[in-house]
Amino acid sequence: MGEKVVLTQPVHTFQIDINDHVNNAIYVEWLEIGRIRLLEATGLSIESLHERGYHPILVETWIQYREPVFYPDTVRIEVWVSGITHVSAWIAFHIFSEKTGKLVARAKQRGVFVTADTNKPYRLQDDDKAGFARVLLAGEEA
Questions:
Q1: C-alpha–C-alpha distance, residues 4 and 78, integer Å
Q2: Domain residues of the chain, as ranges?
Q3: pTM value?
Q4: CA–CA separation, 110 vs 61, rounded Å?
Q5: What b/e string do you get for 92-118 counting C-beta neighbours within 10 Å, with b at 16 or more?
Q6: What are the residues facing 75 on neighbouring strands?
Q7: CATH for 5-133 (3.90.180.10, 3.40.50.1000, 3.10.150.10, 3.10.129.10)
Q8: Secondary structure (DSSP) of 86-130
Q9: Is the distance from CB of 113 to CB of 58 less than 8 angstroms?
Q10: Which pLDDT tens digit goes with each residue over 76-102?
């Protein structure tokens, strides 16, 4: 069984919107940072994926905003793979406020792997799947 990747991100003043809390678009940036860290934890950095001739493409994003986040604060992001097929993976996220300890957002994204030269689906190899096993918590949804 795999483990969650955990990281923190500070809330910056420029991320605050007209309602005095973190703008919803910032959460998508946090998901991107978490997804890159997740890939690194599998041993598949963006650079190594490109060297191997394929890369991940996002095809779906879902976010549930549960609580606002205010400045100053730091968020803790937990990210893991909740499901994987031969060509795609579901990535799950929990985002917590360090100040309140509350779960402030849940999210999930589906990425598809494609070959760089044809943009056609890339079938994950056994060594790829072994890397994802490090962060796979099958069935544990966002």
A1: 6
A2: 5-133
A3: 0.94
A4: 7
A5: bbbbbbbeeeeebbbbbbbbbbbeeee
A6: 9, 97
A7: 3.10.129.10
A8: SSEEEEEEEEEETTT--EEEEEEEEEEEEETTT-PBPPPPHHHHH
A9: no
A10: 999 999 999 999 999 999 999 999 999
